[in-house]
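Batch job 17 of 40 flagged for manual review because the log was empty.
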Amino acid sequence: MEYIDQLQDLGNSAMEMWSSVSHGAARTSEYNPLAWDTPFMRLVDEFVIGVDNYNFPKSNDNTYNRDNRFYDDWAKYHPVKDLSGASDNPHIQFMYPFDYPPSKGLIKEYVTDPLGYDIETFSEKNATIYSKVIWLRNQWPIALIGASLYIAMVFIGPMLMKNREGFKLKWTTAFWNLALAIFSLIGTLRVAPVTLTHIFKPGGIGWVGILCTEGEQVNMSTAALWTMLFVHSKYFEFFDTVLLILKKKPIIFLHWWHHFTVFMYCWEGAMNQITGGMIFSPMNYFVHSIMYFYYFLMAVGHRPKWAKFVTYIQILQMVIGLFTVGSHFLFWTRVKNCDGSGKDFFWALVIYGSYLTLFVKFFIGKYMAAPKPKDRQIVKAKDD
């Protein structure tokens, strides 16, 4: 009977949690394990999470203060040093041309000064993003309008091109994909070192810390700038769909659903400074650096033999994304004053779950499904 009662309590807790999350609310700012006080969860607390190792102050939990803190608190912030120390590694300073003294001096003398610009405006290490976060919050209607126009374009664009000849756009497509590949590679090199240092550096904040610590404490300086650029890149990526429409290429559901939902989720996550972005953005940067380079090679007529690898890492990205969301949700319910958002957990789960399903379906259909009769004839002809 004791085990039955525990199962019933667990079921009631799950229903209570689902009700809380589905309404966009969170657990109270005080520690509240939502009646999950079972022997198993106590083992998880001690040996998996290590809740006793974390003592986040009450101010760290912005569950109920996200709406006000942007205006009351963030306006007072100044540039803050990268707490991980990753961007200060002396061996990689050349990667920051606007901060590295030799290149900074040359750029200042021959570029910014003659054009009348202050070179400090372009500093990555002293970047301030708070005004940009506030702008994202104030302009949320623009995101809604932009997303609506994108969906309209997905369905109306092919109709407008129906009786027209498709454009070739070979080199436009090639340079566009190459530009995004380079941008994504730079973003990877900027954000990934900070994330990895936070997690793996001896004495660092670890996996629990990087997900539970309020966003502006881990997403600073160079990483903050490039996560913000990551967000803004998502509406530029709509041009991927424009190219497909103009070339009269099919726009599959996976393509437009991914572009639409990533745009909305990134905008919402950035304006609320959800800490999961420190995992999601470098991971997506890395995958895109490979994916867009693959598209560039395809556009110039080279067919790489590692096409399957691109889909592999896309699927792996979704698995890691779901693991991140699940981990953060667990920490949020178990670790005192862990920052998080019930609404964000819900939508992240829906989005990453749909991506994983669609990418796996795409992989099976493209690489594992038996060839159609027509395809078999083509293969036989090639063999003959």
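Reviewer: the log was empty due to a logging misconfiguration, but the result itself is present. Confidence is low (pLDDT under 50) at residues 17-35, 74-79, 376-384. Unflagging and moving on to job 18.
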